[in-house]
């Protein structure tokens, strides 16, 4: 599936997402995300993921998960990307202000973290290998995924991508072609809201990688 994604987006890295930008408003966006602030905890039943592109192309990712019912475990898994090896290190899980128990890096088989019953869980990690740099456009990169797969999916989930410049986002479901999604929150940020019908969506981004 990711081979099709790479083929569909390869021209966008050099051409600057023209194909996405010419789509009509109904095709290029999902539900607006302005009602969910980017800073602070989301309300119960919501989650938010902020992925920031670092110099060199690594991603610093933070998940805020506010569950309606207490949780005592959470799992992380690496996305399967054709021809790419993605890794996640410096993993920190905090549940209601207390550190969770689990490995500091995510293995190919995934990783599980345990904690005392909690409703507010924060997950942080550094992800490497997800951003492919363009060979034709200086500083341009394609993030073929912007976060790990995380259990405890909430009914409403906002994904935010930040970089020196974020040109566009696309969402892709397993076995399907990517489609434009989200809206800009400024030159250095783009966001999209997913709901319960989009649990398997992977979010991709065309960005300018900080130097």
Automatic annotation (TrEMBL):
UniProt protein name: Uncharacterized protein
């Amino acid at each position: 599936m990711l081979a099709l994604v790479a083929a569909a987006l390869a021209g966008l890295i050099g051409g600057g997402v023209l194909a996405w930008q010419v789509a009509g408003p109904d095709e290029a966006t999902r539900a607006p995300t302005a009602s969910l602030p980017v800073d602070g905890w989301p309300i119960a039943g919501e989650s938010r993921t902020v992925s920031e592109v670092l110099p060199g192309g690594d991603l610093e990712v933070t998940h805020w998960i506010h569950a309606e019912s207490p949780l005592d475990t959470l799992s992380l898994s690496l996305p399967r990307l054709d021809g790419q090896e993605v890794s996640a290190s410096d993993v920190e899980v905090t549940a209601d202000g207390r550190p969770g128990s689990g490995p500091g890096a995510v293995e190919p088989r995934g990783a599980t973290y345990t904690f005392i019953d909690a409703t507010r869980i924060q997950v942080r990690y550094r992800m490497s290998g997800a951003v492919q740099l363009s060979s034709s456009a200086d500083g341009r990169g394609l993030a073929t995924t912007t976060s790990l797969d995380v259990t405890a999916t909430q009914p409403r989930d906002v994904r935010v991508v930040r970089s020196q410049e974020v040109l566009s986002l696309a969402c892709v479901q397993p076995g399907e072609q990517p489609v434009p999604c989200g809206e800009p929150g400024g030159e250095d940020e783009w966001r999209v809201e997913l709901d319960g019908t989009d649990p398997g969506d992977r979010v991709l981004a065309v960005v300018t990688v900080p130097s």
